[in-house]
Amino acid sequence: MGFTLRAAVIALVLTGPVTWWVVQVEYVRCTLHPTLISLFATSVFVLALLVAANAGVRRWLPGRELRPAELLTVYVMLNISTCMVSHHFLQVLVSSMPYAARFSTPYNDWGALFADRLPPWLTVRDAVSLKGFYEGGDLYAPENYGPWLVPVACWSVFIMVLFGMFLCLNVLLRRQWTEREKLSYPLVQLPVALVAENAPLLRNRLFWIGFAIAGGIDLVNGLHQFYPSIPQIPIKTYNPAMFSSLPRPWDALGWVPVTLYPMGIGLGMLLPLDMLFSCWFFFWVWKGEFVITRTLGWDAAPQMPYVPQQSVGAYLGIAIFALVMARHHLAGLLRHFLGRPSDVDDSEEAISYRAAMWLLAGGTVFLLWFAWKAGMSLWLAGAFLLVFFAISLAVTRMRAEMGLPAHDLQASGPDALLPGILGTRTLGTENAAALSLFQWFNRGYQSHVMPFQLESMRMAHRTRREGRGTLAAMWIAAVVGTVLGFWVLLHTIYSLGGATSHFAPPICPLHLGGEPWNRMGAWAAYPTQGSPAQALAVLAGLAVTLFLNAVRVQVAGFPLHPVGYAVSSSWSMHVLWMPMFVAWLIKLPLIRYGGLPMYRRLLPLFFGLIVGDCVVGCAWTIMGLAGDLPSYRFFP
């Protein structure tokens, strides 16, 4: 059993500093974005330090060292708490809660249009508190923290219900995905290998070669930050104007970063060959769509060629395929729930299937009621939750099957999809405002907590940890992470002033908070009509995904994977397409001529790339925070 008192205490002691660290580097200084990639660099860094410290304890105080399952418990709890305060979760919520009231003026007429009708139990509108939030003030003065108490409490209950529903879904699907379909959970491999008994990974020379390569690059580039005379090792080129000078239609290629992140290459080596190929291949397919659209003059139509909508359709197709694959398991669960004979066995689960289904039903009723009280029509709330949970299911399935390094689906959730298809004129101002209230957990899905939960269950199974202990660890981390996340964010913003130059653009309270409400202001001032073209684009993405899945079932070795089609248009894949391409170039001959035995022998080298990048890169951010100095940004 890995959930012991000392493991929980260590995790909780570390949660505060890690939460503050993430807020500083992501939200304040914008020098690192650990929650924009599937393996949180901060968690890997802390786990590596714990493993090193544990080796010292084993040597000098034998018998007192942490067991592998305990180390993984700390890692799991840090992952869950980091999800809570991540760039696509609480950072957005805290930024958006006061924004509409603060920036409502007679000129934009937000007050009359929507701001004055926003639920006071979900937003902050007290003028004194808002002044301190944006200009700086004392959070601990009653007039500043008082107006936050009710909204923070209401959103915290909402978050806990969401978290519990994700857990219930994972409990219901774990056996199907893990034992029947035998999904590989690639992202579990590294932490499990790091904490293994007798540390075989750390005794492997290839691991330290990979560590030295990635860490050496970060060391040199970090020194270059302070001493420009030291030559930099170029591993990233961000030139937004790279193709803008090309003649039409090639200028439509837009932003194409060229990067060689060691961590990205290492993560790419964990992916199957067809997935690696599909990531960079479909990235250029999407770019080709823009060029063709520009060539034919179709780019005069807004949003053509509707790439975000196609991607959403692809995610929905992946969710549908996952449910079709699990249809017999789901039918057995239904018979079990109704008390009819079935072959369902939940003896190894943290909670019974019947309890999980009752909790899921209760959570659904609560979320519908919450959305209705926030101003959303029940029919729209149902459609919103259906799309949201379908995307959540798709993200979790992708991670369990492929170990994707990125799956953000930036600004394409149901809060944007439904108004685009139905039109804000049809929805009305109250519905549009309620959708804007829910934008914060749909801005992106990169740090989605549901796949982390399932991976934690998988690690528990691999290290023979007791399931209820893992469940308890995740719940404690979620509650503590939420409370600490709210407190650290509010303390930081009030200390520095959310509208001051202490926050480095573009990720700051003004930017994150303004996204939903500036969009809402445009919707209210200029209501939009429904767009059948966007609906067709969603259906096209869904159809392509189902077609690719059908072909893969029939044709062995088919190189195109529907998951690659779904994720390759995202912001994250823009910065990772080149590492995926390099990993494919390495893995293709490796598998073809050396086979799986050679790949397994070389796997420690790629683990070393990941750990070396995380350890040295994160160390630079800590030094920067300690000395209040600019630090090397190793990702992105």
Describe this structure in words.
With 636 residues, this protein is mostly helical. It has one domain. The protein is built from 25 helices and two strands. The chain has helices spanning 5-28, 41-60, 68-84, 90-96, 99-102, 110-113, 127-135, 142-180, 189-195, 205-226, 262-268, 273-296, 307-325, 327-337, 353-373, 378-402, 414-422, 424-427, 429-437, 449-462, 467-496, 509-525, 532-554, 562-567, 571-627, and strands spanning 236-237, 258-259. Strands 1-2 form a two-stranded antiparallel ribbon.
Put the structure in a nutshell.
The chain is an all-alpha fold and 636 residues long. Helices cover 67% and strands 1% of the residues.
Topology:
Layout (H helix, E strand, L loop, with lengths): L4 H24 L12 H20 L7 H17 L5 H7 L2 H4 L7 H4 L13 H9 L6 H39 L8 H7 L9 H22 L9 E2 L20 E2 L2 H7 L4 H24 L10 H19 L1 H11 L15 H21 L4 H25 L11 H9 L1 H4 L1 H9 L11 H14 L4 H30 L12 H17 L6 H23 L7 H6 L3 H57 L9
Antiparallel strand pairs: 1-2
Helix pairs in contact: 1-3, 1-21, 2-3, 2-25, 3-20, 3-21, 4-22, 7-8, 7-21, 8-15, 8-20, 8-21, 10-25, 11-25, 12-25, 13-16, 13-23, 15-16, 16-20, 17-23, 19-22, 20-21
Regions with little confidence, pLDDT below 50 for 5+ residues:
none
Strand count, sense and barrel status of the largest sheet are: 2 strands, antiparallel
- Bulk shape: globular
Q: How many H/I helical runs?
A: 25
Going across the biggest sheet, name each strand in turn.
1-2
User: Structural class, from secondary structure content?
Assistant: mainly alpha
Q: How many individual domains?
A: 1
Q: How far apart are the first and last residues' alpha carbons, in Å?
A: 37 Å
State the total count of DSSP E strands.
2
Question: Roughly what fraction of the amino acids lie in strands?
Answer: under 5%
> What fraction, in percent, of the residue positions are helical?
55-70%
Mean of residue pLDDT values = 91
Radius of gyration: 24 Å
H/E topology pattern? HHHHHHHHHHEEHHHHHHHHHHHHHHH
